[in-house]
Design goal:
By secondary structure, the protein is an alpha+beta fold. It is built from eight helices and eleven strands. The C terminus is likely disordered. Keywords: DNA-binding, Transcription, Transcription regulation.
């Protein structure tokens, strides 16, 4: 194991076990270098890694401090609008529409939407921000055969659930959610303002109108894993 990785592991252990509390100041690079008898550049590399992993933050001219990882956002998977959940939790929330564009034929998406190759399908991308920080990227794939004005209206959509409601779809349910972990691509790093070391939680699912059984959308959501805690509700077994 490299010397900088040993420093990273030590501070992660100390932070997780409470030796360092949120907003505590870490020793300076020189102090750590002297303590472990290693070059200062090795310590700087370790501190850079800790920063990219979301464990510490810097104050200009003052040093490095422990980030409060307890102030993370609870993520509960449900049929409730993500926007509505964030607002109900009291966060300073913003949803920004960043594109609406027609996609080329994609077998998986077209099959999920239950449409033929002749139907135009659009993807609508929204960036989710808390306190001005990008935390998630939502992409919704919808068929023009279901929403005939999507090409014109898609660029104004910031909440798909609000859009559904405006079209008379008020009772809907999510399909089975597929969850995976991925490291961000270059464009995703730029969009979510994160390093390549921050894994993304990727959720893929769909939305179906309960009354008609019509498939409304296929959804792919990328969440920055360092900004969320994940809530799993316990199941209740019969006694």
């Amino acid at each position: 194991m490299s010397e900088d990785q040993e420093i990273v592991d030590k501070f992660i252990f100390d932070i997780r076990t409470g030796i360092y509390e949120p907003d505590d100041k870490l020793p300076s690079e020189n102090e750590v270098a002297d303590l472990f008898k290693i070059p200062r550049m090795t310590v700087r590399k370790a501190y850079t890694t800790l920063h990219e992993l979301g464990y510490i933050y810097s104050k200009q001219g003052k040093g490095s401090y422990v980030r409060n990882r307890q102030q993370q956002i609870p993520l509960v998977l449900s049929n409730v609008s993500f926007s509505k959940k964030m607002i109900e939790l009291g966060f300073s929330y913003q949803s920004s529409n960043i594109f609406c564009e027609q996609i080329s034929h994609n077998k998986k998406i077209y099959q999920f939407l239950q449409v033929g190759e002749e139907i135009r399908v659009f993807r609508i991308g929204r960036l989710r921000l808390i306190d001005g920080r990008p935390i998630a990227f939502h992409i919704s794939y919808v068929a023009e055969s279901v929403f005939d004005d999507i090409a014109a209206e898609g660029r104004q959509i910031t909440s798909m659930f609000d859009y559904y409601n405006s079209k008379g779809y008020t009772d809907y349910t999510s399909t089975t959610t597929e969850i995976s972990i991925a490291f961000p691509s270059k464009s995703e790093r730029e969009l979510l303002e994160c390093s390549s070391l921050i894994p993304l939680l990727v959720l893929e699912s769909g939305c179906v109108d309960e009354r008609t059984g019509k498939v409304l959308e296929h959804t792919r959501v990328l969440y920055r894993s360092d900004y969320f805690t994940y809530i799993i509700k316990p199941s209740h077994e019969e006694e």
